[in-house]
């Protein structure tokens, strides 16, 4: 069985979405036929995450791969919230991880070295065969130095697996080989959404009102200090009579600010449903209780072109109707009027109209939900994604070997 090592300077478990993405990806790659090891960093964790003794159970994945925690120099607790100091300490984390990783790699062999992090893959490309390096980029780096490193890694890796078509195009424009590219959107673990209760049963279990029209948002309210547009949902719902908003995620201060914004519209606090951060295994239950899952991302280069949102796929898998801002990355997955309702990203009135329409048109809401569910289960599961990844990596390795033989023959 070919061996794959997944590399990341990450906390596992973590309250952030990338932890779920990576754990489900590793499970799917193991099921696709790899012997998988996940090399994380031994970092200080939050009090909530330290209470989790079994990350596999926390994320609801099988113990089909191994987790190894590399010791690193983690000074982050000393930063005490100072962003400039945190940034410096983050680089200390990365550098110390790379040093320990390279030392361990002296005694480790694998068929694939896989990472989302170009800072890891660049030094590794000097010690391991480049054809064995697989790069899953999630954005185009904004700084000149970051782009230079990213372009170097794209040139040196054997296979590249960008999350969106625009990301692929930008990497190719920067000099990467299109032949090494295969777009692989994020997805869902189908088993997490099997045998879900009815919406009524889910609401009973959670304690939410049965007959309410509930518009829900799941996840972090900010990413990389970028707001994710939920305030506009509050403003839009202020004009949708009797609608409820449900927020499953956080952090608490951001959610409480939204609560105050809700109350400032004169809306009753009873219609502001805040669940906070829930465990990944409970997320499908909460999503099942939504009527509509909303993805109101604003226009930034990251959200517009490079985001493959986990929540979008999970809304679809839970049977929600989806309302999302019409950004190019989102439109690579869903189609307006068929699998979602899309609205101009900066237009609260259009968002209000979409939410109002779904409140009054139950058949439309049900049709969108059915179509979205069929699409995600057919095309966007982690299992299907892992098979594509494995096929692409193997194809790239075969082509590289053929090219090497051709060069030797000449």
Automatic annotation (TrEMBL):
CDD domains: GT4_PimA-like. The keyword Ligase does not apply. GO terms for molecular function: transferase activity. It comes from the Bacteria. Keywords: Transferase. SUPFAM superfamilies: UDP-Glycosyltransferase/glycogen phosphorylase. Gene3D superfamilies: Glycogen Phosphorylase B (3.40.50.2000). PANTHER family: GLYCOSYLTRANSFERASE. This is Glycosyltransferase family 4 protein.
């Amino acid at each position: 069985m070919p061996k794959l090592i997944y590399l990341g300077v990450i906390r596992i478990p973590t309250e952030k979405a990338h932890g779920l993405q990576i754990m489900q990806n590793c499970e799917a790659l193991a099921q696709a036929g790899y012997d998988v090891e996940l090399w994380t960093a031994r970092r200080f964790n939050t009090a909530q995450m330290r209470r989790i003794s079994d990350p596999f159970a926390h994320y609801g994945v099988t113990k089909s791969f191994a987790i190894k925690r590399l010791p690193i120099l983690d000074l982050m607790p000393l930063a005490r919230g100072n962003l400039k100091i945190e940034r410096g300490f983050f680089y200390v984390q990365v550098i110390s991880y790379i040093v320990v990783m390279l030392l361990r790699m002296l005694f480790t062999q694998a068929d694939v070295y896989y990472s989302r992090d170009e800072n890891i893959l660049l030094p590794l490309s000097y010690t391991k065969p480049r054809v064995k390096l697989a790069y899953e980029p999630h954005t185009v780096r904004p700084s000149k130095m970051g782009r230079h490193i990213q372009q170097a890694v794209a040139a040196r890796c054997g296979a590249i697996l960008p999350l969106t078509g625009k990301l692929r195009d930008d990497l190719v424009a920067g000099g990467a080989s299109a032949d090494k590219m295969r777009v692989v959107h994020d997805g869902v673990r189908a088993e997490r959404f099997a045998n879900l209760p009815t919406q009524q049963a889910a609401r009973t279990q959670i304690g939410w009102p049965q007959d309410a029209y509930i518009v829900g948002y799941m996840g972090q309210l900010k990413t990389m200090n970028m707001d994710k547009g939920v305030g506009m949902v509050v403003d839009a719902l202020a004009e949708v009579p009797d609608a409820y908003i449900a927020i499953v995620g956080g952090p608490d201060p951001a959610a409480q600010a939204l609560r105050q914004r809700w109350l400032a519209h004169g809306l009753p606090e009873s219609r502001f449903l805040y669940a906070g951060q829930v465990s990944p295994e409970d997320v499908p239950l909460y999503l099942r209780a939504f009527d509509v899952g909303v993805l109101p991302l604003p226009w930034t280069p990251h959200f517009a072109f490079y985001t493959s949102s986990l929540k979008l796929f999970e809304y679809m898998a839970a049977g929600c109707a989806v309302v999302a801002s019409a950004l190019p990355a989102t439109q690579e997955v869903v189609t307006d009027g068929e699998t979602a309702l899309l609205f101009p990203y900066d237009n609260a009135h259009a968002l209000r109209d979409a939410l109002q329409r779904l409140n009054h048109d139950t058949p439309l809401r049900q049709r969108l939900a059915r179509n979205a569910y069929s699409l995600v289960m057919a095309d966007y599961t982690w299992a299907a994604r892992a098979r594509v990844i494995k096929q692409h990596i193997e194809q790239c390795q075969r082509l590289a070997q053929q090219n090497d033989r051709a060069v030797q023959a000449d």
